[in-house]
Amino acid sequence: MSSTARGGIARASERGSTRRRLYLALSVLAAVVLYAVIVGWLGGVDDRLTDFAGARQAPSGQWWFGTDSAGRSLFVRIAAALRTSLVVAACAAAVSTVIGVLIGAVSALAGGWVDRLVMRLADTANALPHLLLGIVIVALFRGNAVAVVLSIGLTHWVQVARIVRAESLSLREREYVSAAVLAGASRTHLLIAHLLPAVAPQALIAVVLLFPHAIWHESTLSFLGFGLPPHEPSLGTLLAEARTSLLLGGWWTLVFPAGSLVLTTVAVAVAGSSLRALLAPPKPTRMPR
């Protein structure tokens, strides 16, 4: 068997393994979303109902994930927290990607001093601590979900902008783009008709890859008390509530919310990396001498 054939078989096997990882990650993520949607919304259970007589009950047949310090079912509370955290993280990842795509495409299309100024702005934004900057933004509108989304979106656009800029610079040299320029196409037309559709796959991957960062960022802000208010269930607020219960032996108040957070973010991260690998152009094969 020739080296070219062996290389083709190896690439096909690698892509098959990548597809299996993608399907497994999507299956886990679908189960998490289904659990978050069904419990509470379709189950008709109010996650705010308290029962102090049943506070800090260990996991059992009645309470699958145990109860918190207010006697609320953690099985229901985690589902509600997942709904909140998933929506906030998805919106934040989308906002960050839109900002990064627009800045990267405009920077590459304008060129010159505009491109240099934008890149210096990106370097400055990348040098600032994201968490500290997010705390400053959220502190102005404390307890506001929109502020949490903006704090994440305004601090995570730099890498997307760099990727889109690099892709746009290579696209700007393509023959069909040069032909459009010679035909008198405006920069706005080039941006809408050529550059943005070309970087759309990169934008999709960016949304998926930014999602784990967004959900961890939201959880961190809420855990520190700068994100969502304590009565609003999110993975960060549940982890913050678990600090007191953990000292009293309520290990389940930490294990199940933290496990949900890790499971969700790992599933999304694996799905994103697998999707990027599948959408990447195949490597050129070396012709035998």
Provide a brief overview of the structure.
The chain has helices at residues 3-42, 74-110, 112-127, 130-140, 145-153, 158-172, 175-182, 187-223, 235-247, 252-279.
What are the salient characteristics of this protein?
single chain; 289 residues; mainly alpha
What would you note in describing this structure?
- With 289 residues, the chain is mainly alpha-helical.
- Helix content is 74%, strand content 0%.
- The chain is built from ten helices and no strands.
- The radius of gyration is 23 Å and the shape is elongated.
- The two termini are 15 Å apart.
Separation of the first and last Cα atoms: 15 Å
How many H/I helical runs? 10
Low-confidence stretches: none
Q: Would you tell me the overall average pLDDT?
A: 79
Structural class: mainly alpha
Oligomer status: single chain
Amount of beta strand = under 5%
Helix and strand string, N-terminal first? HHHHHHHHHH
Q: How many runs of DSSP E, i.e. beta strands?
A: 0
Q: Outline, from the CA principal axes?
A: elongated
Fraction in helix: over 70%
- Main β-sheet: number of strands, strand sense, barrel status? none
The whole-angstrom Rg is 23 Å
